[in-house]
Amino acid sequence: MAPRMSGVRQVAADEGFRFDVPGCYRTQAFQALLARHPEALQLYARHVEAQAHEPAYLQRVRRLVPRLVRWLGAEVAADGRPGLCVQASALLSRLLEELGIWNYVVAGGCVLSFVPADVRPRVFYLFDLQPVEVPHAWVVAPPYDVIDLTLRQQRYPGPEGRRIPTQVLSCRAPQVTVQPEDVCTPALLQGLLLRGWARETLLRRAFPEFWHFMKQFPARRVRMPTVSVKYIPARLLLPPWHEAWERMPLINGKSFVQFRSEMTLVLSGNGAA
Predict the structure, then answer these.
(1) Model confidence over 112-125: pLDDT tens digits?
(2) If DSSP codes are grouped into helix, strand and coil, which group holds residue 137?
(3) Global pTM exceeds 0.70
(4) Which of 20, 75, 77, 104 is deepest in the core (most CB within 10 A)?
C-alpha cells in the first residue's frame, strides 16, 4: 500500500471509523475524513477489493448481479441517450448497496479492439492537448471485476457499435499494462515524444498522479467474441445520496427511488428481468 494510503488508514483507525457496511462512505464520519484526506475514497475501494467473503455471499452476488444488470441494461437501452455512464454506474452502485453488495465506481478510459480486426481500435482517451472529462465509468463489485451498463451507448462514428454487447459483466478480467497510446491522443503523444520524453517513462513523468493511481487500481482486459476492451481506471467516483438526486429522473425517466421500489419485484423473478 502507498505511504499516503497507509497514513489515511491509520487516521481512520485512530478516529474509530470502521468500514462495516456497503455505502458507509455516506456517513458523516466518513465525509469528515474524506474532506481532510481525499485518498479516503481509495481506502474504501481497497477495502471492497480486499474482503474475504463467505461462499454464501459470493453465491448470492453471482445470482443477483446478472439479473440486476439485465434489467438496468434494458432500461438504459430504452432511454437511448448516449453518455449515461456516470448516471447508470451511480444508480447501479446505490442499488447494489441496498442489496448489501460491496462495490465502488470507477471513471477512466477504454481501448476497444474489434474481432476480427477489420476496424481500427476505438480509444476513449484520458489525456489531450487540452484537459478532457474522464470519458467512461463502470462498477467493480467483487467477484465482478467490471460491470459496464453503457459501453454500447457511447458515441461511435461507424457500424462498429453493433459489435459491442449491450452490457459487460466479467469475473475474469486479468490485469494488463497501459501504453502511452492507450491514454494520450496522437497529437499529445507526438508532442511529448518530440520534446524528448522516453516512451518507457512517459506516463510516470508526465502524469504522476495517474501513474500512482494505476498502481493501486490497475487496468484490466475483458475479452468477448466480437470485441476486447481494456478498462483503464483514472479516478474513483462517489455516488450521490442526497434526496434531490434520489428523486430526480436518471434513466428512462425513472429516479433512484423508483428503481429501488421496482428492484424487489424484478429480483424475485416477477419483474421485467
Answers:
(1) 999 998 888 999 99
(2) strand
(3) yes
(4) 104
- The answer to whether position 250 is within a domain reads no
Summarize pLDDT for 217-266 with one digit per residue, the tens. 999 999 999 999 999 999 999 999 999 999 999 999 999 999 999 998 99
Q: Are residues 229 and 131 in the same domain?
A: yes
Burial of 48 (0-12, 13-18, 19+ CB in 10 A): middle
User: What CA–CA distance (Å, rounded) separates 75 from 9?
Assistant: 38
Same domain, 94 and 28: no
Helix (H) or strand (E) holding 107: strand 104-114
Per residue, what are the HEC states of 198-256? CHHHHHHHHCHHHHHHHHHCCCEEEECCCEEEEEEEEEEECCCCCHHHHHCCCECCECH
Q: What is the DSSP letter of 197?
A: -
Count other Cβ atoms within 10 Å, centred on residue 21.
Answer: 11
Element (H, E) at 17: none
Would you say residue 77 lies in a domain?
no
**DSSP secondary-structure letter at 161?**
G
Indicate the number of domains in the chain: 2
Judged against a pLDDT cut of 70, whether residue 8 lies above it is answered with no
Domain identity same for 122 and 172: yes
Are residues 47 and 119 located together in one domain of the fold?
no
Give the residue ranges of DSSP H helices in 151-201.
180-183, 186-194
Instruction: Please give the residue range of the domain that contains residue 11.
Output: 1-51
